[in-house]
Design a protein that fits this description.
CATH architecture of the largest domain: 3-Layer(aba) Sandwich
Strand content: 15-25%
Number of helices: 12
Number of strands: 10
Largest sheet: 10 strands, mixed
Order of helices and strands: HEHEHEHHEHEHEHEHEEHHEH
CATH class of the largest domain: Alpha Beta
Distance between the termini: 73 Å
Helix content: 40-55%
CATH topology of the largest domain: D-Maltodextrin-Binding Protein, domain 2
């Protein structure tokens, strides 16, 4: 009788453990780590996604901003989290490409992340104060005639804005002063006030200023014109060919996350990006939503790898160092 009792107790214990392992995912809130300050493009995108993803997943999706050191702290925090599907890393070109070429923590963290889905993208855009020349061709000519006179804003060493400006110098032969800022919001304020000459901006953050006429657009860094501002030419159209920089966003989880959990998270993203309300909100922000084919983990992995292979040598050759 005693042996039967012990066996029953063991069976209950084993069953409890199995039940814990078999617990339906997700059973509690999920966190998306944003490695940039609140209110910026990545934070805004994460909040739009989280509102709809909670419907698909049946649990709250919480946004946690973890900033500092060129986004390296937030990326590393996400990579070091438990691989259980409860911590996601959202990032963009700056955090998941540019920073990896300069910060050892990001370089290592990128190897410890596995993709969930590509989300959306906007091109980078050259914008400037209204007192500058009328168009991109005239701006480039003026910069060449006045080397070192103009000032251009950057938002951190190795950021997309910084690399864009270095690339712009390389492709045009123009020379100008680089002025560091802490973020895009103060840059836009100084552009409107005429305190800085121009900026290579993530295009979606320029929309309110373009619509009000507060700043002047010059060109976008994409093969096609940007749907949100179709009157703005591409760099190809103004005579600077092959200058393409996409400010894209993606979602990752820590390496080792079970494949069924990754599939569930991917399904939640796919449903979210198919939702008409979400699509309209992203379109209003100037985001070009990833196609269904681009939303698979495999597609993000291949795309991310190609971006790193293209840009890390350029960043390292330019000897860009952390500020």
């Amino acid at each position: 009788m005693k042996m039967i009792t012990i066996a029953a107790a063991i069976a209950v214990a084993v069953g409890g453990i199995a039940g814990a392992h078999a617990q339906v995912y997700p059973s509690h809130p999920i966190t998306i780590i944003v490695p940039f300050p609140a209110g910026g493009p990545t934070d805004t995108l994460a909040r739009i996604l989280s509102e709809r993803m909670r419907v698909s997943l049946g649990q709250p999706v919480i946004i946690e901003t973890v900033t500092g050191a060129g986004a390296s702290i937030g990326v590393a925090r996400a990579a070091q989290a438990a691989p259980d599907g409860y911590t996601l890393s959202i990032g963009n070109w700056t955090s998941h490409v540019g920073a990896g070429a300069m910060y050892p923590a990001v370089h290592d963290a990128l190897l410890e992340l596995q993709p969930v889905s590509r989300i959306s993208a906007t091109p980078l855009m050259i914008v400037g104060k209204n007192a500058l020349p009328q168009n991109a061709r005239e701006l480039i000519a003026w910069l060449k005639e006045n080397p070192g006179k103009a000032s251009a804003a950057t938002v951190g060493a190795g950021s997309a804005a910084h690399i864009c400006l270095l690339y712009f110098q390389q492709k045009t032969g123009a020379r100008f002063q680089l002025v560091p800022y802490r973020g895009g919001a103060p840059v836009m304020q100084d552009l409107v006030a005429g305190q800085i000459d121009f900026f290579c901006a993530e295009a979606s953050q320029t929309l309110p200023f373009l619509r009000s006429g507060a700043i002047r657009p010059f060109a976008v860094m994409s093969k096609e014109r940007w749907p949100a501002a179709p009157d703005v030419p591409t760099m190809d159209e103004v005579g600077v060919s092959g200058m393409y920089i996409s400010f894209w966003h993606g979602l990752w989880v820590p390496k080792g996350t079970p494949s069924d959990i990754v599939a569930k998270l991917n399904g939640a993203v796919v449903e979210t990006l198919a939702d008409p309300t979400v699509r309209q909100r992203l379109t209003d922000l100037g985001q070009v939503i990833a196609t269904r084919e681009e939303q698979t983990p495999e597609a993000l992995a291949a795309f991310h790898k190609a971006e790193i292979e293209q840009w890390w040598p350029i960043i390292k050759a330019a000897n860009v160092k952390p500020e």
